[in-house]
Amino acid sequence: MAAWSITVIAGLPGALIIAANLQGMFGAWRQPGNGGTKSFSPIPLMGGVLGAIAVWNCPLEAVRGWYLLPLLLDPGTGLYLLFMIIAAGGGALENWFARRRKVAETLDAGISGPLGRALTGAMLGTAVGDALGLACEGLSPQRQLKMFPSLDRYGLLFGSGMISDDTEHTVMVAQSLIESGGDEADFARDFAWRLKGWLLALPAGVGMAPGRAIIKLWLFIPPTYSGVKSAGNGPAMRAAVLGVAFGDDPDKLERLSRISARITHRDERAEHGALTVAVAAHLSATSGALLSAQEFVQAMAARLPPQSAILASIRAVAASLAAGEPAAAFVAGLGSKNGVSGYMLHTLPAVLHVWLRHQDDYIGGVTEIIRLGGDSDSTAAILGGIIGARVGRAGIPPHLLRSLHDWPRSTNFIERVARRLAHARLANARMREVRSFIFATPVRNLFFLGVVLAHGFRRLLPPY
């Protein structure tokens, strides 16, 4: 008797609710409303649930097995809930995709925005300066002018350009920043491994200090102690990309720059010189107006110790510019009469002297620094990275970009590295490096060595 009572008490209102829901649904389909059908709001759950309870408690055994039927018949229960779940899930999924699209759009805008533009300009500017100055490396200003009266094309390989260690180190630093996300310990480990791999690939030119430092890395000496006592310009040639990527965080930039320098050079002058180049690249990329020499002196005085030899050389640059002294005369006064040497206190002042007068003029600045002679590939690479950070890809002569025919570190590859680094910085995340066909690098390096040797024999011939 109790079972029949439950069946009747639950079944009658359940049936009425189901009937009302069905009538409302069919009525909504039949009667047009504004711009379509009438809206329909069923009574949710109650009809189907009460019907299922009534059937489940029916004393007739044959009826009990149909307890799911009210749930299926009632538009306010099964189908209604299904549609609600789909709608809610679809809305959540749509919101998730919308958020992802917004993040992607933000990152894409940033990559093509100031940061991406500056990183691309700095890295391509380094590569083009490196390649343009490479044929003139080691020549005095007088001999260089006789051999290469025009610098509107590359002089190393029939008008085609190739890069050297200056660009290779810049790319390695950028890749390590991508992989490490700026974490200092991971950056040191990653960059150290890249340097070891770079040496194994038989590069044509390895400086004495970097070579000794990398051998120490292979002998399991940690990156914090691998550097040798040297004030060479090696750390400066790979510093511009650091400044553009992390210049908005001065403390982190100083730590990363110190790590990058000390892996190969444990000398305060090398370390401070690299930081100066990084800051110059950052200011070049972010300053709206052109910087005066005194403004740059003030910026570096806030970052370098008062007794720093590099700070004294920066002040000497400012004084020379104020006096209207030509770059050649200034460089000669530093003791570099036959060209700018690889000593940091020769390289850095020469680069700054030219940069502060050519901040918006990539080819004018790079041409002038090359014409000063000496270590022209490194000086042009450093200066090219600083000016390139300001002018971007568009400010670098297109024919020089097209004629830079290196591989696997092509201009396209370098640009992809710059964009990936911009992406990683904007997302504040670690990312995978930009892959290249690394096994081709030793073959490329052997070919490059042959080109360099042939160019060396060419120098034995006139004009003298």
Keywords:
single chain; about 475 residues; mainly alpha; ADP-ribosylglycohydrolase fold; about 65% helix; about 0% strand; elongated
Q: What does the average pLDDT come to?
A: 88
Report how far apart the termini are. Answer: 122 Å
Give unreliable regions as ranges. 32-37
Share of helix, binned: 55-70%
What is the CATH class designation of the largest domain?
Mainly Alpha
The structural class is mainly alpha
Please give the count of helices.
23
Question: What pattern of helices and strands is seen along the backbone?
Answer: HEEHHHHHHHHHHHHHHHHHHHHHH
- Proportion of beta-strand residues: under 5%
Rounded to an integer in angstroms, the radius of gyration calculated over CA atoms is 35 Å
CATH superfamily of the largest domain: ADP-ribosylation/Crystallin J1
Q: How many discrete structural domains?
A: 2
Largest sheet: 2 strands, antiparallel
Rough shape? Answer: elongated
Give the tally of β-strands: 2
Verbal overview:
By secondary structure, the protein is mostly helical. It folds into two domains: 2-106, no CATH class; 128-458, ADP-ribosylglycohydrolase fold, CATH 1.10.4080.10. The chain is built from 23 helices and two strands. The protein has helices spanning 2-30, 46-56, 61-64, 69-73, 75-111, 114-134, 141-147, 165-180, 184-200, 208-218, 234-237, 240-246, 250-262, 268-286, 293-301, 309-322, 327-333, 344-355, 362-371, 376-391, 398-402, 411-427, 441-458; strands at residues 32-33, 36-37. A two-stranded antiparallel ribbon has the order 1-2. It is elongated, with a radius of gyration of 35 Å.
